[in-house]
Amino acid sequence: MDDPICPLCGRPIPPEAKQSLHHLVPKLKGGKGGPVVLLHQICHNEIHATLTEAELAREFSTIEALKAHPRLEKFIRWVAKRPPGFHSKTPGGRRKR
């Protein structure tokens, strides 16, 4: 079976890679039970370091919208050159909720 593909960066997610589920609409903003996508942990961390829960719920509740965000666009170009299992600490913390 092929590894799942991260919808944000387009790289495969091998079983040993750090990974997590991202709620397209944050749980705190009514997304509990809503659609989720499997992402590399580094991609998921970057989303939450870039956007607040309110911004995610309001304007960035699709992969297409996330990919169009200027900071995430730059991150995707950078991480796409890394191996599928690559992980590093995300600079900065989570944005406030």
From TrEMBL:
Domain HNH residue range list: 6-49
Pfam families according to UniProt: HNH
Top-level taxon: Bacteria
Gene Ontology MF terms: endonuclease activity; nucleic acid binding; zinc ion binding
Protein name: HNH domain-containing protein
